[in-house]
Specification:
about 130 residues, transmembrane helix, transmembrane, membrane, mainly alpha, about 80% helix
């Protein structure tokens, strides 16, 4: 199987995230010494890791909810996004830090999505087979 048939558009997105993370790090450094390149590559890999973890988990949450019989427009599915957004705004106003707001919103989303996922798993697990 050739490499062209194994690559997907997702891989192009991952390469783009890596290049943007690396480029931004180099731009901030302002110098192009070996140490700066090394740090930029590590920063690009970290950006890639954070992106893949975050987007991958969001996609996994959406797919699992849909596979359990839900729709992506269900209020129950959208609740973790709404709660995380509200908490992120509140934390951002309180702390005046975008990073703190994003971190708080992320963890609130994780907990809320976990509650929704456990609830969906419970409902699907105890649904009558003929229902």
């Amino acid at each position: 199987m050739s490499l062209q048939t194994r690559l997907r558009p997702w891989h192009a997105v991952l390469v783009a995230v890596f290049l943007v993370g690396t480029g931004l790090s180099l731009f901030r450094a302002g110098d192009y010494a070996f140490a700066d390149w090394f740090e930029a590559v590590v920063s690009g890999l970290l950006a890639l890791l954070v992106f893949q973890f975050t987007v991958g988990n969001l996609w996994g949450y959406a797919v699992e909810y849909y596979n359990a019989g839900g729709e992506w427009t269900d209020p129950v599915f959208l609740a973790p996004f709404a709660v995380a957004t509200l908490v992120g705004i509140a934390v951002g106003v309180w702390s005046e830090s975008l990073a703190t707001a994003a971190w708080g919103a992320f963890w609130v989303f994780v907990v809320a999505a976990g509650v929704v996922a456990a609830g969906a798993w419970f409902v699907v697990g105890y649904r009558r087979p003929d229902a």
